[in-house]
Design goal:
22% helix; alpha+beta; two-stranded antiparallel sheet; 324 residues; disordered C terminus; 6 helices; disordered N terminus; globular
Length: 324
């Protein structure tokens, strides 16, 4: 265990794996108790964490692992329905097969979406990959990505042109043209901090949650014209900040951490468990060339972060954000 920890400390980014236009069907589009429309970031990071464990178990790739993941979305189709343009959307539901006695099984309420995504994944190691290793890595990950469940969905296809490609660590900028056309999900906590400050200047007793809800709100304001008519205008707190979206960015522990096997009905009873609640923040969809112009491509990788003292389990891109 100590040798493994020492090896992880010495590991550096030795390259990147690009997965082009991965077609995912039936992904979970309910990302948290109050957000929906796109899977949670942890759904993608968990998939590549599972792939990293396969990589580490391979004889040729001992000493290598996968780390941060860049998320680029080409297309997202939530599976929803509404009877008219004035009705609310509802998720399409599927019914389970009949029971053994012929009775109708209950419907499991869930929200799904179909996605076309591109992923750029960091490869960590203590030494550079040889040409033979990088070639084998592409072949292996091409096979693994098609076997992997991603955000609860199934992979049904990849790009026909170079579906998986390996880039050296100094070739990161060469990845950007391959992400077109798509939008990259970025951390917008700096924008969120400004929105919170502006909102609290206007409403001193407001909380960060109030500011988050205001970002999700469209305000319709009536204005009287000179001839006595009423003209309606729509405003939003996120105007001028770009394409902002609310999203979960991790979990906050709300109980002590229980030893393995103590908490009942957990997915992995062999590990310590803890009761948690979702933490919310803001994300921003950016065009890939915007990242290149502002030299942000290296900060677009989502990674796990754990703060044991504060019981925080986060997915982060940049420096720690001061939660309010």
């Amino acid at each position: 265990m100590q040798d493994q920890q020492h090896q992880n400390e010495l590991a550096q980014t030795v390259g990147y794996i690009l997965f082009r236009q991965v077609q995912i069907t039936g992904a979970n589009s309910i990302s948290s108790p109050i957000t929906y429309g796109f899977p949670a970031i942890t759904g993608f990071l968990g998939a590549f964490h599972a792939m990293s464990r396969k990589l580490q178990a391979h004889e040729v790739f001992k000493g290598f692992s996968l780390s941060g993941v860049l998320l680029a979305c080409h297309d997202c189709q939530p599976q929803v329905y509404r009877s008219s343009k004035y009705s609310n959307y509802t998720f399409n539901q599927t019914r389970n097969p009949l029971k053994k006695n012929g009775d109708t099984a209950s419907i499991i309420e869930e929200g799904k979406c179909h996605l076309t995504m591109s992923f750029v994944v960091e490869v960590l190691g203590t030494a550079h990959l040889s040409d033979e290793q990088s070639h084998l890595l592409v072949n292996q990950t091409t096979q693994w990505i098609q076997q992997q469940r991603i955000a609860g969905g199934s992979v049904h296809g990849l790009s026909k042109y170079k579906p998986v490609e390996f880039f050296q660590s100094h070739q990161l900028d060469d990845v950007i043209p391959s992400l077109m056309p798509a939008f990259v999900l970025m951390d917008a906590q700096d924008d969120f901090a400004q929105i919170i400050e502006t909102f609290q200047d206007k409403y001193p007793n407001a909380t960060a949650l109030d500011a988050l809800l205001d970002v999700c709100t469209i305000h319709h304001i009536p204005e009287a014209t000179e001839n006595g008519d009423v003209k309606w205008s729509a405003t939003s707190a996120k105007t001028g900040y770009g394409w902002l979206v609310p999203m979960p960015i991790g979990y906050q522990g709300i109980s002590e951490c229980f030893d393995a096997g103590v908490m009942q009905n957990v997915r992995n009873p062999e590990y310590p468990s803890q009761y948690v609640e979702a933490i919310y923040g803001l994300g921003k969809w950016l065009y890939p060339y915007h990242l290149k112009a502002n030299d942000q491509i290296s900060t677009a990788f989502w990674r796990y972060e754990h703060d044991a003292e504060k019981s925080l389990y986060l997915v982060r891109q940049s420096d720690p954000f001061e939660f309010v």
